[in-house]
Amino acid sequence: MKCNFSAILGAALVLGTLARAADGRVVNLYEGVAPGSENWDRKEQEMKGEPGKPRIIFNVVKPTLTVFQPEAGKANGTAAVICPGGGFFMLSIDNEGNDVARFLTARGVTCFVLKYRLLQCKSDDPLTETLARGKLEETVAPVVKLALADGLAAVGHIRAHAREYDVNPDRIGIIGFSAGGRLAVAVACNYGPETRPSFVASIYGAYDFATTTNGVRSDAPPMFVAAASDDQLGLAPSSTAIYRAWTAAGKPAELHIYAKGGHGFGMKKQNLPCDTWAERFADWLAMQGLLKNGN
Predict the structure, then answer these.
(1) Quick one: 19-287 is in which CATH superfamily?
(2) Which residue has better confidence, 285 or 12?
(3) What pTM value is reported for the model?
(4) CA–CA gap between residue 32 and residue 183 (Å, rounded)
(5) Rounded to 10 degrees, what is the CA torsion of 238, 246, 105, 193?
């Protein structure tokens, strides 16, 4: 897919209006209305589930980054854009976003949880509404392009403001879960000079050729992939396809397929080996020198 991201990036490389959030400052990814969704009139909403259930964000119109910074003196210069999943209808904002950021900031990584644009939900229950729609590929196709623009803009924004965030512009990566994993892989196939991620991770994500038509680039970043064989959405083969594509292109990749864990395990604990995927991801970052001080 060929898109002119120069104009989009130009709008995105503005720090935007900052507000305080519970865990960090929130940065508007674009100055003004996000390009491509000028006529959207819905409002972002949050669905708070029962105790122990993940918190869900839906109807995202204004893309933002929530910044999670390590404790003073502990930042190592590595940054990660984190893309929660939710089928492009919603975002599992804690289990696949904020909780991941807290894990990584404890290891010196500066994190940016991305709220990317989503399809409109017409009810107050996006999970039930999404499941009722059945196959979603044609439905989500238009918004996937906008989400990809948001992912590219996020990497570009952080690189342009690397000094302000105390990060190394050559150590900015992206990690995504489920639909967010598809988004992360799409970013890793469609970048420009300012938006190339330094590393990419797909956690039970899909490898969709409609958003990766550039294929694995000659300078593709190293890839980390994790999923469970009993994924209810059948995405384990998609994860192995990502790994095969990267290795076939001669690019570094690491693959973890767990026997159990289901879809959407994220940071929740199930007393299963997949509970340790984040530690394996940290090991992978360390192996590449990305947890050493690189400022």
Answers:
(1) Alpha/Beta hydrolase fold, catalytic domain (3.40.50.1820)
(2) 285
(3) 0.90
(4) 23
(5) -120
